[in-house]
Amino acid sequence: MASNSFGTIFRITTWGESHGKAVGVVIDGCPAGLHLNEAEIHEALTLRAPGRSIYTSPRKESDRAEILSGVFEGMTTGAPISILIPNQDVDSSKYEPIKDLLRPGHANFTYLKKFGVFDYRGGGRSSARETVCRVAAGVVAKKLLAQDAIEIAAYLKQVGNVEASIPDHDHDTLRSTVYQSPVYCPDATAASAVMTLLEKALVEGDSLGGVVEFRTTSLPIGLGDPVYEKLEAKLASAMMSLPATKGFEIGSGFSAVEMKGSTHNDQFANKQGKIEITSNYAGGTLGGISTGMPIIGRVAFKPTSSIMLSQKTVNTKGKAFTFQLPPGSRHDPCVAIRAVPIVEAMVALVLADAILLNRCARL
Amino acid sequence: MASNSFGTIFRITTWGESHGKAVGVVIDGCPAGLHLNEAEIHEALTLRAPGRSIYTSPRKESDRAEILSGVFEGMTTGAPISILIPNQDVDSSKYEPIKDLLRPGHANFTYLKKFGVFDYRGGGRSSARETVCRVAAGVVAKKLLAQDAIEIAAYLKQVGNVEASIPDHDHDTLRSTVYQSPVYCPDATAASAVMTLLEKALVEGDSLGGVVEFRTTSLPIGLGDPVYEKLEAKLASAMMSLPATKGFEIGSGFSAVEMKGSTHNDQFANKQGKIEITSNYAGGTLGGISTGMPIIGRVAFKPTSSIMLSQKTVNTKGKAFTFQLPPGSRHDPCVAIRAVPIVEAMVALVLADAILLNRCARL
Amino acid sequence: MASNSFGTIFRITTWGESHGKAVGVVIDGCPAGLHLNEAEIHEALTLRAPGRSIYTSPRKESDRAEILSGVFEGMTTGAPISILIPNQDVDSSKYEPIKDLLRPGHANFTYLKKFGVFDYRGGGRSSARETVCRVAAGVVAKKLLAQDAIEIAAYLKQVGNVEASIPDHDHDTLRSTVYQSPVYCPDATAASAVMTLLEKALVEGDSLGGVVEFRTTSLPIGLGDPVYEKLEAKLASAMMSLPATKGFEIGSGFSAVEMKGSTHNDQFANKQGKIEITSNYAGGTLGGISTGMPIIGRVAFKPTSSIMLSQKTVNTKGKAFTFQLPPGSRHDPCVAIRAVPIVEAMVALVLADAILLNRCARL
Amino acid sequence: MASNSFGTIFRITTWGESHGKAVGVVIDGCPAGLHLNEAEIHEALTLRAPGRSIYTSPRKESDRAEILSGVFEGMTTGAPISILIPNQDVDSSKYEPIKDLLRPGHANFTYLKKFGVFDYRGGGRSSARETVCRVAAGVVAKKLLAQDAIEIAAYLKQVGNVEASIPDHDHDTLRSTVYQSPVYCPDATAASAVMTLLEKALVEGDSLGGVVEFRTTSLPIGLGDPVYEKLEAKLASAMMSLPATKGFEIGSGFSAVEMKGSTHNDQFANKQGKIEITSNYAGGTLGGISTGMPIIGRVAFKPTSSIMLSQKTVNTKGKAFTFQLPPGSRHDPCVAIRAVPIVEAMVALVLADAILLNRCARL
Predict the structure, then answer these.
(1) Which residues of C touch D137 (CB under 8 A)?
(2) 3 state DSSP class of D238
(3) pLDDT at residue B97, rounded to an integer
(4) In chain D, whose CA is at the least distance from the CA of A120?
(5) Is C239 an 8 Å CB contact of chain D?
(6) What is the pTM of this model?
């Protein structure tokens, strides 16, 4: 079924449960010749790690990735790259009392019904813990993108009704601004308002939704494939495979609905001998294929399902219960924040695959 | 690359250009034993056909699908089902004068850059003509869904700033109400306002964006697969593979951003001995797997790129031109309308595949 | 399931039953820029056609392939290439009386048990009629191979106990010698002996097995992929997907069993500054990847299952019957002969795909 | 490219180099509900391990597999099963002096040319070390087969010119007889002759080829899929993906070439109310779909490429050298012996996938 794999040529397969021994990813189809080391992966994992501020889950994971194969003398060999990340700080005992309760907003009900068995400890396979593998694989994908000078930045665009204005920085400045913010938001004013909202949510034991936006630098023209493998279709699939996502849009997105064609149609123009596009409502693709403009998209995240408030539910036998997380449980008041580096990684995975596939378009 | 295929087990491959001899679809992996005839496909194609009212393109296609294989004595055999739909009413001569111009909002620029050659007649492979194949395949998928009593309705939810209220009909009534409306909108008041907007756009030579919403009847629990093949990821990919789409959302979608977890978490309850979910902000899935509730989603369509207004552009060599469609050219003022049966078909294709894959989840 | 598709990037999907309206193939992933016309396909189909001599089935098929998509102004566009070949000379009435009998050596039993329904007319989907689609697709694949100066010849190597000596011709001479022989055998003495065997078999109403051998010109080094996509694994899969095949071998094949490593290990040597391999027991690959030497392989075909002799069998309900083909029924006394151009086509399909995949091995 | 994956639904991905830290396999698509523990895997690995007798390589691997995911409370959960097997007894220093020499019969030349970089230590990814992962995954596949009472036995059929007669044992006795033999050959007389051959080869520093045969118990009817996913095509691909294989045949195999159709056509008969087939030249399939008879096939292995005799070769720059393995190097005089449990595992993987795919054939 390959439901734990993503990509066609540059293809990842992830495995591991939240409270198992480890999680990991196998990257198949990565070209030979990329320099790669564990320190680079560690650095990326740090950005995703919880516990960096009060605004994200206090779980202390100092994730150490181990490269088990596919790299020889510091260089990828074309062989599958196996990366293993041990699980640490795992205490499953607190899940014992609630293991038969259907958790509102969680997947234990659907997993149990589908498979007849569920590794309930920490959410098992349905946990966001799986995304650490995506971030690790994203490091390798970005190395491939760097060959074409493609870079990606993602950031927190909105939480609740607070929307950020994204400064008109060059790419590097934008990205460093993002990761200097405790909430991965490059607009300091909005970031401050978001932190206030999050503090209030923490006090209430409640949670908030958010939007993550991403943008790339100018892409090569021609990435993406016709019809069912349009670049936006792959991005949509990538994003909606992330836990807690409710929506994806590219370019103008849902706001296109209130626009007219005469406005929305980006114009082609000749700028100093080169064909350019003067606006980017399209968000970087036409007919599913990159136009050469930056790709811009947004992902909606629901408010975190894990909240400290008590909730009504039933157990697996239908008996009514009140669900209450034990005091001191870990949770993020807004999953969109830690999703920022994960969204980046998913964009990288989609583009790395698109670059390789595009080598086959012509003679 | 298989970029013209969709699905894993129930898998379609489409082919054909807008102004070629024909378009067609091969359905592989359809189980044996379904009753199928050409009249059923014809009926579905009629709903997609242009020219049903002034609100859609006046191109007169009375599409006749021919089943060339895979059906024996009225029943599917498990062999690939090949369906061919000849192109009619095709006059490519009017594309000749504009063949070197980059059409704003169209894919001729990206196709040409990617492949070095482009069948410009009617948009070739990038044309929405391809979607007739999806609708034909959707008929077969729906036959499979009918075995599990699954039905799907899609409808026009919004055009410009006019948003429809969807009546609380039973499924059959809803669907028939939709297709009785000239704009496939079950809210008569909104439909009327939409028609006014469209008439205005036609006079102006401009176009409008729109939202199509879909909902299914209650699904079996367990459709969809963990991690990268979440049901919403497949739906997102399906929808974003449609021409002119800019966004997809499921359940609460982007509105989840302004909600709190305590509200958004749908509750499990015991209703007369059966576990039920008392709201559906999730939109029918948890962890990517169907909860048993209806699947509800929305797709944003940009305003039609083909407009009658003149637009500035350049030709393939970068020379500035004014782009002007010849008088009497065909176009839809809002592609979202005719997208309604196409969205329905894509939901059906995703669910048919999910039903088959789900047979492999357990011993 | 995609069981009617072959290939990863250069991917074909075939459809159609022996006695249906038509058969056809969709080629997805063919690069843009290849010149292609229907006459070339027609020429290839002629080599596969029955009725060219008394040694093959007298069915008169003057197959005319129609290219329905993917070619614009004589050149491939990167879009799927749909080729349709109408079925002619089809009279299904003679299958009516035997439709409930299990035909020894045929697939009607297994198809019926698997699918619950079987299009028995002419063998339906299990018929060798399907291979016409492979030959048509092979023409396109060979066009791609020609870019790398790769050519393929196949020929009849053995029938019964008559084994041919293959002359040491250059590739073009070899191939033209093959197709001048009524039995596609480039050794005139062996060909003559084979014809005598076939004439005897025809008189007896019986059939014979055969071996088809293929060899390519020198390949680029590097085609094929590690582990599960070894070039020989793909060739094996390609050949064993042909009807009536019982075995595949590459290079030394089964004769390697009686060899020693010191003999079998082909040696590397420096020939005028270039690394060459001085023998080719390997058959052109090491570790599943092409060495630069010609690929050489052989395919075993069982004696044709359709024979004129009466045979004991039962019907679908288990009642004993004598199976007797109606007088004047079509059949090939040895399917290996007509398999020659089909084997060629399958080699071409495997190599075309390998060439494209190999573009992704390095930065 | 997924060249390190095998299977469609029941799908494995392997990783790891011979002298890296570990090798491993991820099994995706295994149904939930199978009992599984590490001891069972360990037992299977023992059968493949070298050093069990003087007839196989003296490398001492007491492989310990660790299940890292996908099993909860002793049962598979439907999540990917990650199995890791650390590499032990690894000393790469002896490869240092020969790292630039092209090894006759080995893949270092083709890997290096393809990828530009090669992990030469112990053959890296091209090493038979990879097959330990197949055996581990095969244990899980066999658990699924056991649900349908399918069992598989493989055994050494031939080495050099010594061919074994396979006793007419019941399946369990056959299999235990095989693994009691130091050369995995159930015919004691042949086994003895083989051992004599092997002892001679060891003294000479040379190696021998061999044939492994496999047979299953009676299969369910209907496994395998039409056209390109015929059961024999998948088995052929599975076997030819093994290192050192030169040929595959099913049922009569290449001997069919000298048979007549009247003999080769297995007959259907009514045996006590059940349709049975009275011979099995077909080897268990018709039209690529299982007939219900045992599957029988054979795999040809070339003589081991690693020999102790000195061989002429060149280095990567084309300079002539004599290649000589260091005294005391590990090698198997005949790889076919240790291939026996690996062939078994590959049959199991093919059948497990076929069983799952077959669930989708009908309504």
Answers:
(1) none
(2) helix
(3) 86
(4) D72
(5) yes
(6) 0.97
